[in-house]
Amino acid sequence: MLDNFENDNFLKELLNDFKVEAIEHYESIVKGLTDLELVSAAEKKQEIIERIYRNTHSLKGAARAVNLNEIERLCSCLETIFGHLKKGEIAVTSQLLDSMHKSIDVLKVLIDNLNDGEKNGSVSANATIRNLEYLLKLSLQQFKDQKESISTDATAVANIIIEETTESDVHEKETERHDLYSVRIPTGHLHQILSESEDFIAVKTTLEYYRKSLENIYIRHKDDELYKIIKDLIAFQSVSSRMIDDLIINIRETLLANFSTLFKVIPKMIRDLSKEYSKEIALNIRGEETEIDRRILEELKDPLIHIIRNCIDHGIETPQERVEIGKEIRGKIDIRIEKLIDRKVRITISDDGAGINLESVLGSAVKNGLLLGTNTESLSGEEIISLIFKSGVSSRKFVTDISGRGLGMSIVAEKISILGGSIDVTTEKGKGTKFTITLPQTISTFRGILIETEGMPLMIPSLYLDKAVRVSPDVIGNIGDKSVIKCINGETIGVVRLSKVLGIERADSVNRRSDVIRLVILISNNKRIAFIVDKIAGEYEGIVKDMGPQLQYVRNIAGVTIIENGKVIPVVNVSEVIDSASENPELFEHEQSMQNNPLTQEREKRILIVEDSITVRTMLKNFVENAGYSVTTAVDGLDGYNKLENEEFDLLISDIEMPRMNGFELTKRVRESKACPQIPIILVTALETQNDMKMGMEAGADAYIIKSNFEKSNLVQTIKRFI
Amino acid sequence: MKSDNQILRERAVKNAQKMESKITSKEDYLSFLEFTLLSQRFAIESSFATEVHFLKEITPIPGAPHFVSGVIFHRGKILSVINLRSLFKMRERGLTDLNKFIILSYKDLYFGIIADSITGISQKSISSITPPPSTVDLKVSTFISGIFPDGVVLLDAKKLITSPEIIIK
């Protein structure tokens, strides 16, 4: 692979990257060694040894990839020792640990010396390696002999190592850690910074507003001092605007990274794996310079590695097999990255191996009961291949350590879909397999405000949000029969209830009494409309997901997002909502009627639901709560009656057929009670005869609703008739 | 959930064995997933029914067609859920207990349908179906392959999943 790395700059960059990685491994090893002395439980020890072993192994591989022979050999030696420790063939002694620490210090010096090829503070890796080898030999011998304490020889070895390491070097180099070319920052933090920097856009608009205000004053009161202030403000405004724009652009750019940062681990990995499986592989990567959102890139690492491992383990045949069937000895793995037009990136990974064995996949799927006894013969090749993305399916008869457990591909598919992308596979028997991954170039995160209308929570992307305000109803005026509101800047904009535009309003919602109106003023394509909503519940950040292949397009809805508790919230497509509203001017009518409504205090209405079936009870509860009421439930008439006596409710909803006390009896008792004889009562039931309805009314119920009808918002309308 | 999976798995194994013997006897038996909506029993070819689960919270989508109950977040994926009762204009009366959903999929299309209960997997002869009575709404009948002698209505899964009436673009 290294033959390809002719470019000096690239090698430099690679070395820098290696350095960052090496320091990480170094730190992890140091921590592991320290921990090893602290813990006493054998199990914990084993865990730490395992971790250090892996660290030394990875560092060895990385060093090999960038041709750092000394580090590679030192790590290899450490790896061997930890390999023996792992198997319990030598014991962890403090002397051994000391020597390890010393060797690690040497390693640190070697790593630090990579800086611009400086070779100061020379240490001899060779001596350290020799010492370690000697120590290992002794330890092995010692363990065999079951001796209690380590021999003086070993102590001597430890001392030799001390001499070899120039300790001052280690200390000197410590300070240089800060000068590394890159730092690791959690991407969540970067996004936080991005969103905070985007808030500066508001500073820009505010400055603009103050400038205009001052200029207006100046027109009326010519004043030299004011003129000077305005002039200074204009200068400041132009400087700060440029600063803000640059900041945002720069931060957005930090969030893009090119694929080469990801692919530097791949050649080494392929080399290791091809050795392990005695396969010869030629890797060809194209389009590494393609840029993609850093977060996507980081999430992509595991899926890509998994796919490549699959190619090597399952796809490429052994050299003998390849020669027999007349293929080139070296198997080919091609990775190609392209930027597509609509801000998408396509990654194709193809091999020229044996292809996916469809029969094995099918067999595995059948064995795992995934096909529920389907007529397997009717499945097309494509359908069978898609099975590899299902959990539990593998084309392998035997599970190896890197693949074949059948979990991998399903995780790959899930991860890619979470990133907003898709994955496809095509395979041809004897010719090879091709994985195609399509991803968005940037994670389409958006910040949005959560609002509620008619009990339905919706997300509005902040990008389109001009203002979210609470106003008194008399602020809304009208021009002709259209409701409008005057903005601070004098502009007049239309006012419309969002639920009306979305077609989810209820007949009575216009007349809902409230002393405060919540408006979100949205702007798109220079059109500005104020939408009335019921609640503004705060700001969120999320990713817009589509609604599945069946629901590819819904007018006014851009997709859904998931907020922290796993709740799915539809995201409003603002430009469409604004278009929808402008196309239907009649929607703007009658909002002004609100100013005539008496001002009443908003209090959450409390409703008692009495229902014996848990399913229906929960359903009813959700339904009524979603309509904006506070709900208490009772499991039968008697329970309900007791609750009514002890708490105050505005309305009662009851089932009819219930144990202990049925709905008719409950109604009768409530009407005769002292606590709340006037409470509106709605009976909900599956019974539907005229006689039942008559009985209910005679008992004193106010309304009667047939079950299963309540999803048609009949129930909420009925409730609203009473309270 | 685990036990559900186990049951399904056991069933699948059981059915797979049965099928083999059926195929060798050269009969046209197929495996069907049966479920109920209100009091009506329906069957769907089990190759199209990939998963069966308890229904979690559905988020209604404003402006979606009437037969779409909403969307759910299931295993890291958003999928839409269809209420066949609404699609088939079945009379909305009587107590229903729509708390299960079946994921139907064909190629890269998938969505959920909600059901009152899942009756199980059955082996039925495809040649025993009779066409739906002419009284059935024409729009509804396009999604029905026929009726089995025991009154179970066989849905045409492929048509249902791929119909441009269902897939909203």
Describe the model.
The complex is a heterodimer of chains A (723) and B (169). Chain A has 723 residues and is α/β, with parallel strands linked by helices. Helix content of chain A is 47%, strand content 20%. In chain A, 33% of the residues are buried. In chain B, a hairpin with a 5-residue loop joins β9 and β10 (153-155). Chain B has a five-stranded mixed β-sheet with strand order 8-1-2-10-9, with helices on one face. Chain B has a five-stranded mixed β-sheet with strand order 3-6-7-5-4. By secondary structure, chain B is α+β, with helices and mostly antiparallel strands. The N and C termini of chain B lie far apart (33 Å). Chain B has four helices and ten strands; from the N terminus they run αβββββαβββαββα. At the A-B interface, α16, α17, β17, β18 and α20 of A face α1, β1, β4, β5 and β7 of B.
Summarize the largest interface: chains and residue counts. Answer: A-B, 53 and 53 residues
How is the largest sheet of chain A built, in terms of strand order?
10-14-15-13-12-11
The mean pLDDT of chain B is 84
Give the number of helices of chain A: 24
- What share of residues are in beta strands of chain B? 35-45%
How many helices of chain B in DSSP terms?
Answer: 4
| Relative strand content of chain A | 15-25%
| Radius of gyration of chain A from CA coordinates | 36 Å
> Fraction of residues of chain B in helices?
10-25%
Q: Provide the helix percentage of chain A.
A: 40-55%
Low-confidence stretches of chain A: 1-6, 147-179, 397-407, 592-601
Poorly predicted regions of chain B: 20-25
- Through-space gap between termini of chain A: 77 Å
The profile of the biggest β sheet of chain A is: 6 strands, mixed
User: What class would the helix/strand composition of chain B place it in?
Assistant: alpha+beta
Largest sheet of chain B: 5 strands, mixed
> First CA to last CA of chain B: what distance?
33 Å
Give the strand tally of chain A: 23
